[in-house]
Design a protein that fits this description.
Strand order of the largest sheet: 8-12-16-20-24-28-32-35-37
Number of domains: 2
Radius of gyration: 23 Å
Distance between the termini: 26 Å
Strand content: 25-35%
Helix content: under 10%
């Protein structure tokens, strides 16, 4: 869908109009929250010669496309420390010491837009709180607050259970202020609620956790403005949008049977999902996802449309497949009714993802990825793949997926089936081959097509 037809186009118009008000665009810094984290804005600012500072929600490809911004910043050294002072809504003062990292990185546009936008050299700033409190092996239940963070506010929590906590504002289960980074690992968050956002968590990094039956009035009943890895979000309800996640990044997660009652994004809203399985979610619009980017994801069996035109799916499995390596075949879960979302041995999702879009080397169950050389679509990786071909591609042309046809030259054109898959040609048609056409000399230089 063209950017001009999306709601996010207003960020580009605001950038143009505000830049036009000054005679020196280089003196301007345009500030934006997560909703303005779109590559079109970065590119337009570069074109206009102006500056921007955006709070990101998308982990973009970086450098040679073999890494991501988050991976590069994780390796970056700390270059300074800064103390932040502030007050809560109750007037209580607090301080937070932040480790500051910053790096200049070559950031790539989304894979489906490589033909339209050039790579950009951007300065990435990363701030993490030092010395956060640690809580282990605890149960936090039946707590409430008139503000935010019903179960916990700030801190690192491991092996904990949150249940029945409430917050008038954000983070019924747990919340951290926007200046502070916290982590939840191996925790369960159940039946928590928030009046505004993040019934389960708000502004957290969450790993190997279960978020179930949480609620929030408008947005993100499961998680809001958070990063989740290897998590389950299920039976969560938001009154407006983003039943499972809102303005969050989800990696290797199960997003199952969540709802957004009034508007959109039963599974997720304004989020990025990588190698997730999104099923059984419902909303009036985009029952699975809305205004999201989904990479290597299964977005299937979601009432009220799996996704709508505001979302971008890359190398994903959905009934409305779109472009960029997507497939429409049913994913063939082991037993969806029983909650088993592992893939059957003949699932078309096997070997059908994109390796550079995989968020980690392990799947939802912490088993290895890339078993047959190419990542599977969805949260689970089949550990006994027989073929190195994309199963969806092989099945499309009637080829067996037991490995017997991988290196056979089915159509006798000199290329085996693995080579035909890599080249994107038809393995049953000998006239479908990869050929370099005659080069042409253009004003921009020599052009080679195939």
């Amino acid at each position: 869908m063209p950017i001009a037809e999306k709601a996010s186009f207003r960020w580009l118009e605001n950038l143009r109009q505000s830049t036009a008000l000054t005679s020196n665009p280089g003196d301007c810094v345009h500030l934006g929250d997560r909703e303005s984290d779109i590559f079109e804005l970065f590119s337009l600012a570069h074109e206009l010669g102006t500056n921007f500072l955006v709070r990101t929600c998308v982990d973009r490809l970086a450098e040679d496309a073999g890494t991501t911004v988050a991976a590069q910043m994780k390796k970056a050294p700390v270059k300074g420390r800064h103390r932040v002072q502030g007050r809560t809504k109750q007037g209580e003062s607090y301080e937070a010491d932040l480790d500051i990292k910053y790096e200049q990185l070559q950031v790539l546009p989304p894979e489906g837009k490589w033909k339209d936008y050039a790579d950009l050299t951007l300065t990435v700033i990363h701030a993490v709180e030092r010395g956060t409190p640690l809580v282990m092996n605890c149960v936090l239940s039946g707590n409430s607050t008139g503000d935010s963070g019903g179960g916990a506010y700030r801190g690192v929590l491991n092996h904990c259970t949150f249940s029945g906590n409430t917050a008038t504002n954000n983070g019924g289960g747990a919340l951290v202020s926007k200046l502070i980074s916290c982590t939840l690992t191996d925790c369960a968050l159940t039946v928590n609620s928030a009046t505004y956002a993040g019934g389960g968590v708000n502004n957290y990094t969450v790993s190997n956790c279960v978020l179930t039956a949480n609620t929030s009035s408008p947005f993100g009943a499961g998680a809001s403005s958070s990063a989740l890895d290897h998590c389950t979000l299920s039976w969560i309800s938001a009154f407006h949008s983003g039943g499972g996640g809102y303005q969050s990044v989800l990696n290797n997660c199960l997003v199952i049977s969540n709802t957004a009652g009034a508007y959109a994004g039963g599974g997720a809203y304004y989020s990025t999902l990588n190698n997730c399985t999104v099923a059984g979610n419902s909303a009036p619009q985009g029952g699975g996802v809305k205004n999201c980017t989904a990479n290597n994801c299964i977005v299937y069996f979601n009432p009220g449309q799996n996704y709508d035109f505001t979302s971008t799916l890359n190398y994903s499995c959905a009934l409305e497949p779109g472009a960029y390596g997507n497939i429409a075949n049913e994913p063939l879960f082991m037993d969806m009714t029983a909650g088993d979302f592992r893939l059957q041995p003949d699932s078309p999702c096997i070997n059908s993802g994109k390796n550079s879009l995989a968020p980690s080397v392990t799947d939802f169950s912490n088993s290895s990825r890339f078993i047959a050389g190419t990542v599977d679509i969805g949260a689970y990786e089949v550990q006994s793949a027989s073929s190195v071909l994309s199963y969806a591609w092989a099945q499309q042309f009637g080829l067996p997926t037991d490995g017997s046809a991988d290196y056979a030259d089915t159509d006798g054109d000199g290329l085996n089936n693995w080579q035909e898959w890599i080249a994107g040609t038809d393995p049953t048609n000998s006239t479908s081959v990869l050929r370099i056409l005659s080069p042409s000399n253009t004003l921009a230089g020599w052009r080679v097509t195939w």
